[in-house]
Amino acid sequence: xxxVAVLTGLCCLLLALPLAVTAVRQRALAAMALRNVGRxxxxxxxxxxxxxxxxAIITSAFVVGDVIDGAVADEARTRYGPIDLTVTSPDRDAFxxxxxxVRDTARDGKLGAADRGGVDWLLDVTVTTAxxxxxxxxxxxxxxxxxxxxxxxxxxxxGEATDTGLADAGDLGPGEVLVSAVTAARLHLETGDRLxxxxxxxxxxxxxxxxxxxxxLAGYGGVIVAPGTLPDAAxxxxxxxxxxxxxxxxxxxxVFDTREAAVDTSETLRTxxxxxxxxxxxxxxAAVLDVAEQEGAGFTELFGTIGAFSVMAxxxxxxxxxxxxxxxxxxxxxxxxALGFTRRRLTRTFALEGLLYALPAAVLGTGLGLxxxxxxxxxxxxxxxxxxxxxxxxxxxxxxSLATGAALGLLVSLVTVWLASTxxxxxxxVRAIRDLPEPSRRRQxxxxxxxxxxxxxxxxxxxxxxxxxxxxxxxxxxxxxxxxTATPWLRRLVSGRRMRLAVxxxxxxxxxxxxxxxxxxxxxxxxxxxxxxxxxxxxxAVSLVGGLDRVWAGLIAxxxxxxxLAARLGVxxxxxxxxxxxxxxxxxxxxxxxxxxxxxxxxxFDHNSDTMATDVAVGADVLLDSAPGSGVDAATLxxxxxxxxxxxxxxxxxxFTADHLDATRAWTVTGIDAALxxxxxxxxxxxxDPAYPSDAAAYQATLxxxxxxxVPDGFLAGAxxxxxxxxxxxxxxxxxxxGAPHELTVVGVGNTDWLGTGVLVGQPLxxxxxxxxxxxxxSYVEVAGGADPAAVAASLNRTYLAAGADATxxxxxxxxxxxxxxxxxxxxxxxxxxxxxxxxxGLGVVMVxxxxxxxxxxxxxxxxxxxxxxxxxxxxxxxxLTVVQGTVIGVLLGLATAQQLLGVLDQDLTLxxxxxxxxxxxxxxxxxxxxxxxxxxxxxxxxxxxxxLRTAE
Amino acid sequence: MNDVGPQRTHTDTPVPPQPILRARxxxxxxxxxxxxxxxxxxxxLDVHVGELVTVMGPSGNGKTTLLNCLSGxxxxxxxxxxxxxxxxxxxxDAKRTRHRATRMxxxxxxxxLIPVLSAAENVELPLLITGVPHKAARxxxxxxxxxxxxxxxxxxxxxxxxxxxQQRVTVARALVGEPALIWADEPTGAxxxxxxxxxxxxxxxxxxxxxxxxxxxxxxxxGRTGQRLVQVRDGRIVHDGDPRxxxxxxxxxxxxxxxxxxxxxxxxx
Lengths: 953, 269
Fold this sequence. Notes:
The structure holds two protein chains of two kinds. In chain A, 60% of the residues lie in helices and 14% in strands. By secondary structure, chain A is α+β, with helices and mostly antiparallel strands. Among the domains of chain A are: 85-282, no CATH class; 560-615 and 818-953, no CATH class; 628-803, no CATH class. The model of chain A has no long low-confidence stretch (mean pLDDT 83). Chain B has one domain: P-loop containing nucleotide triphosphate hydrolases (Rossmann fold, 3-Layer(aba) Sandwich). In chain B, strand 9 (228-233) and strand 10 (236-241) form a beta hairpin. In chain B, helix 5 runs parallel beside helix 6. Chain B starts with 20 loop residues before the first strand and ends with a strand. The interface between A and B is large, with 38 and 40 residues.
């Protein structure tokens, strides 16, 4: 990030430095630029406003990542505090032996000196998984971790009492427990409430002594008890193997600065404890910090990708504004050239003015981006459940993020300003002074033709290389590059209109056809391909629309009321200024394109939720999670009248590593068996190794071969980020005891992991990978004919409460997960609203400038008897038609791309057109733009014709 | 080029008693901050059907203000102006605009053509404004463009026409609605002498066809070709009658020349 900021900053400096030197050495130019900005302050403010939104969007993408990173990382403080490592075993003897080895190793200094990241403190605890019931509130919570520890010892653990969260906790009396704030909230508990702790077949009654804020040890479990408080429960837990003896290790250093040391020390301990069975060493806090970084990066990627469309809309706005500004000043600039200004000086004069817009836009945009990013993180983080329940979303932002956002925003503005200024300085002096139009250049110079020819060949070669090398971006871009750079040659053969039509048809056809033509290359795995697909298809569609100007004019003439004068005038300017119109259309089309895709995918998922639930249900209706040995087993359940069939799998958390990861990552792993596959496949596959003729065959291979696995979409990636793991990829699961890697090859990639099954491997391998960790049994329950899944789930929960059963209808689980997705899509659409804001603001500024530019024409119309209403209507028609055209292009392209995207995601999905959403997508920009145009239109209608006809402004 | 005038009936009868334009006591004052600059100081003027009236005077003495006020483009501070029997300033702005659309048209020095419309589209605008169906308007526009010698340039945009051609388009645009009165403000001001001569000839042909014209001009040649010359000095009419009896321009050195700009007025001594 810092490197990007420095590099971008240097580029900005390179672009701004010549302007700063010019401003210092030639004060008159600086004064001229300043006065031009000050001459129309409202418009200057609008230009800055339009430009700052681009910076705000870029910055906010980084800020979202930082805040999510901070929120997830905060779990290190709330759930672990001073705990850096855990040494765990379900076996008491093995644990005591392991503890002795750890103490000896630490004493010998093999784990580093205490002041150099070595072992600082050790604490014995016992963790039991229980179901907690609060009879007074009629609430219960399965699978709560009850931690038994010595409070006095725990308060000193890590050396900083406040980090343990137990500094202010009083001593516990007999039968008293401490409850974490999140557990208390879920059970609606208050101090003094009576609780029932169910472990295996035992139930113990306790009371809540205190509810503690989740910090350090106070957040490590849901309930904290003193050793010996639950003797029956402890004994039962030992018997049912639902207890984990743990040695908590604190390394020297603060809560957040032991990440590297924890990883190193865990490896040393694994080696030292290698001979002991059922003992595992974990570095949970380092894992949390790794996850935080990956989740943050994932969010930055997601919002950066989506925001890219709005940023491009911002670039188009800037280009449009500077083009208009130049046209408005054409005579003035021509005069400067006549007075002796070189092209270089003219470029700098104009660019200097651009710099005056770009600098405040970068500063203000960064500030706005900070606010937007934080807001987005606060809303979208909980929606996706990226951080633990109750996690805070502190405004923790890396200075490098802000610097990068500001520098990228400024760079975009400066490059636009320089390009526009250079183009402007190429004006013909005489034509500029006399305000004559530039002649259309039908014949091009040899150099232009030569460059064009090389570019055409290069474009075609790029596409070919992309197709051969499986590079989607290159394949997609090559043909449009060839088509657009061929225009100097095409201009010699056909008219401008036909040329635009031909290029538009070719580029649009390519953008829409490349996915079905090259399905193996265009997989959308890389988000940049999605962005480029939007850009290329929009460019093609806008070119095509530009070439159809006569069709639009004819159409307007037919549908206009009466003689349709307002409509005719409304289309006259957009049709006569194809460049300007194309920029405006592109601006709206690109943003609407993305909003449409999001809306369509969201609604399609919604409408296909039943199918999706069926796809992952294995013929079952209810999912029942319970602890192993809890008594909730298939043999017991099948005796019930309301259950027709059942299949069991085991589930736990394993640690994985892969080439694309910097650190290990914990992920759910589920062990499947033949009984499950007899019922069907656990999830339909989006892609699978072609060696297997069916999904069932791929799953069977996974069962038979412990080196194969099926992974869900997004495996080993942050929320919203694209996964680098595809069919054929290899990754490794770490042995919990030794840390040795067990290599796995992906034979199939599923769709969204609605039920949280994670990686699917054979049952024996899953047991190996989760040894020593808390595991669960998941039962796929098929209800008897006529039974209501919700009623069966409720009955199972009641019956097996003490056993920690957690039953939910599968449809409800999918629906709940879908709700999260819907929320995210809504959030992203709101984020894209910024792009529409750019479009609306842009159109407003363009119309304000249009009024100035056409002042005399409007006055003449009024002199001829055109009513002020006609003038106003013509302006509104012009804005409205532009927005509607841009929006319709965006909607149509969005629907087409959504169809392709859904096909890639899951071929069984049936596209659902979000009619209501589309109506809103079309109506909102239209209404907003008409509102933005109302003021310039009113100004146009109020022009004093006697003055305007005689004088330039 | 012999039949360039509108299709209204023209007679050689003496000037009818009821003028097409009647202005009485028209006063117009510009305000620049606290300063008041009188532009018209009580103008009385009658223009009858079929007349060619030229308005001359030194720069800044109120010629264009006279045109703007008497045509209803600008408001007046006192007095009355009736065109075709209707009091312009007793009407609402909307009504005055409609009245102007059907009774008057304009030719300006700067052409003021809509740059993104073709010659034919520019010419048909006054008809479309008054509600003439598009097809009929387009046909009429082509007819009139043919009469001003631009039949083959109808589909060209202003940027593709020479200055003289653009001014012909503005004349065609002024004629197409068959107005009762055409106002021309320095119609030859932006043209070279040869092209200006062509435009003067065109305007005279228009007048010969029976069209009433009021032309504001600096051009002595054009000014003295009319039937009637109105000379304005310091916001007042100092001569109204036969051009041959009018004082020479050099005798009309202003007492105070008034230059009016969009936002300010200044007195140039």
